[in-house]
């Protein structure tokens, strides 16, 4: 039977999904609460991983090993790396990379993980297509993009650092967990998808009250995740 792991880095990113689920059990492992139950008539495990790549990778491996999830969805927020992506829009991952992996001193390109066969982790194509269609239907007031998500254990606010990421990765947005989830899923041969609501413009030309952004972002991602589960 299919079981879907749903990861959010922060409690705000998963709390409404938890409220909507039929909760059967809570299991505490590695300081994380794994909520087992049903959402949109699917078996799910919903969990707050905590912020950063290590937390995200540990959380993903636990979902695979202990709860035997068959697919993983990661929902949260990210910063835009393209001017056409506005605050509140949704980016759906085509693939994911880590922008803070830097072994250039050994001759590797920026972002390439030494001695791995790949450093680019493709999302599940069927999930990508369905998620894009669903988002355009349930969230018609915003734009939906499909593109690369890059992650690092850094909050990117410096314009020079942002330019380095834009120039080297051709990414759509940057955040702190998605690529770690993607790499863990890839190594375990588990399909994954990253969903990100955009919190700021690439050129910092527009701003929104964060409380208002958060309310809209949660509404849009909950609409997407719950309807996506119905369709898969």
Tell me the β content: 25-35%
Structural class: alpha/beta
Biggest sheet architecture: 5 strands, mixed, barrel
CATH architecture: 3-Layer(aba) Sandwich
Order of helices and strands: EHEEEHEEEHEHEHEH
| Adjacency order of strands in the biggest sheet | 5-9-8-6-10
What name is given to the CATH topology? Answer: Rossmann fold
Provide the gyration radius in Å: 17 Å
Unreliable runs: none
Determine the CATH superfamily: Nucleoside phosphorylase domain
- Please provide the count of β strands: 10
How many structural domains in the coordinates? 1
Mean pLDDT: 94
State the CATH class.
Alpha Beta
Helix tally equals 6
Shape: globular
* Helix fraction bin: 25-40%
- For the record, give the distance between the C-alpha atoms at the N and C termini, rounded to a whole number: 13 Å
Pfam family, one: PNP_UDP_1
Protein name: adenosylhomocysteine nucleosidase
Keywords: Amino-acid biosynthesis, Hydrolase, Methionine biosynthesis
EC number: 3.2.2.9
């Amino acid at each position: 039977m299919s079981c879907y792991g749903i990861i959010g880095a922060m409690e705000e990113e998963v709390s409404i999904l938890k409220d909507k689920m039929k909760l059967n059990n809570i299991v505490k492992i590695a300081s994380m609460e794994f909520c087992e139950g049903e959402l949109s008539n699917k078996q799910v495990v919903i969990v707050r991983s905590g912020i950063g790549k290590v937390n995200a990778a540990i959380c993903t491996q636990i979902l695979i090993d202990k709860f035997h999830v068959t697919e993983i969805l990661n929902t949260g927020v990210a910063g835009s790396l393209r001017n056409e992506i506005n605050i509140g829009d949704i980016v759906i991952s085509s693939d994911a990379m880590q922008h803070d992996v830097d072994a250039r001193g050994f001759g590797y390109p920026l972002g390439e993980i030494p001695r791995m066969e790949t450093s680019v982790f493709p999302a599940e194509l069927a999930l990508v297509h369905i998620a894009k269609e669903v988002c355009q239907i349930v969230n018609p007031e915003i734009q939906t993009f499909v593109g690369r998500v890059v992650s690092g254990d850094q909050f990117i606010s410096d314009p020079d650092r942002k330019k380095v990421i834009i120039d080297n990765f051709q990414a759509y947005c940057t955040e702190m967990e998605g690529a770690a989830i993607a790499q863990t899923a890839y190594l375990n041969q588990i399909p994954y998808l990253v969903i990100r609501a955009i919190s700021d413009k690439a050129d910092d030309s527009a701003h929104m009250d964060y409380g208002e952004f958060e309310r809209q972002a949660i509404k849009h991602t909950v609409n997407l995740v719950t309807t996506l589960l119905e369709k898969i």
